[in-house]
Amino acid sequence: MRSGTLQALLWRRALEPHLGRWSLPGGRLRHDEDVETSIRRQLAEKVDLRKLKHVEQLAVFSTPDRVPGPRVVATAFLGLVPSDVEPTVPEDTSWHTVEQLPRTAFDHGSITLRARERLRSKLSYTNIGFALAPDLFTISALRDLYSAALGYRVSATNLQRVLTRRGALATTGETVPPGRSGGRPAALFTFAEHGMQVTDPFAAFRPPSTR
Amino acid sequence: MRSGTLQALLWRRALEPHLGRWSLPGGRLRHDEDVETSIRRQLAEKVDLRKLKHVEQLAVFSTPDRVPGPRVVATAFLGLVPSDVEPTVPEDTSWHTVEQLPRTAFDHGSITLRARERLRSKLSYTNIGFALAPDLFTISALRDLYSAALGYRVSATNLQRVLTRRGALATTGETVPPGRSGGRPAALFTFAEHGMQVTDPFAAFRPPSTR
DNA sequence: GCAAAAGTGTTTTAGATACACCCATGA
DNA sequence: TCATGGGTGTATCTAAAACACTTTTGC
């Protein structure tokens, strides 16, 4: 994610079919690796992306004709990279705003939209923001990340309170000086846990309280 | 599900490896079908189960040594059958309480537990109860189903209110006479929608209200 | 009449939103 | 001293849980 929008990393296909179209990075599963190891390897080898803070399975896409030629079953993943990773990606690879994806190869467009959907729901009931944010961040920076991912303006006030009440945020004591236009220095926060945790397990039907 | 517990349909393996152990029904994917079509076909052919009210992907299990011999990648599903389906299953197939599963083949025990986890969360924020209940049911019958699936006693009062407020329940006007021990006749309800719907989309971070 | 089961009314609690206000800084 | 952005205090809203109470039946 960069510049206030949610972005997906795509690369241009160098082979038929769908030569020249944008596609999600990936490749064949080896016999000695599981699917998560495989996708991490592919991202490292093919697009030099090693700093994923979170990787999770999305779904299997298996319609027989989803790819021309011999049948290909794909396990799709959602992988998240913090907003401060250097954007150096290889030639023929680039980040694309999810709101206006280019024409993609195969079903990669709908896979991307499903990934966004998954991210959006997890932002609500987990601490998954840790995977989008740098290690240290101000609340307004975090607000921008959440707003971009969710597609609507999030209130910084409430974001801070909700995440704090849930124990997801930790204060560092450090601050950042204001810009030219002034304003109070912003405090720097961290996520308390690294690794996804469900922070709001019972949206309803909670077990009876034990008091 | 039957008799107040959550149950899984397992069949005894007739072949090595793990001959005689209980395993989840399934089989190889054909070239002309997607994974959901495939699992529905296997359930129909192998264990004569055709009345699934809901089927959804769980996850891919792909650890290289999860099955002895040549590598097998499995796409696991959660499939739900209403409580009133006749329990006629073939020889060597039977329903097992998930709380005390027998020794299973391969990783089928952990797959089953993951399925239960998925079901439990979806009971909270969707109308997925429709897939566990008969077409017509009393609130106390529904309460028993929810209680068995969730593993704790659900209040009939609050269950009715929550599902009603969310628009998931519909009244039918019909009632059921009480048993020998008396009591007020119970009203029969239906689920308003057949097909899973998210009924509580925003556990948090709802978009600003448009008023 | 009384026990049993179903269902409703009402209070309480918890987690979130909304919004007014105070704080710390640059120019 | 004033505009600006950061942060807190407090009221309000909403969904759910908790529980007292009423309804309708069998015996």
TrEMBL record, chains A, B:
Pfam families documented for this protein: NUDIX, WHD_NrtR
GO MF annotation terms: hydrolase activity
Record bears the keyword Hydrolase: yes
Keywords, in A-Z order: Hydrolase
Ranges for domain Nudix hydrolase: 1-119
InterPro entries reported in the protein's UniProt record: NUDIX_hydrolase-like_dom_sf (IPR015797), NUDIX_hydrolase_dom (IPR000086), WH-like_DNA-bd_sf (IPR036388), WH_DNA-bd_sf (IPR036390), WHD_NrtR (IPR054105)
PROSITE patterns the record matches: NUDIX (PS51462)
Claim: Hydrolase is one of the keywords in the record: yes
Protein name: NUDIX hydrolase
Origin species: Haloechinothrix aidingensis
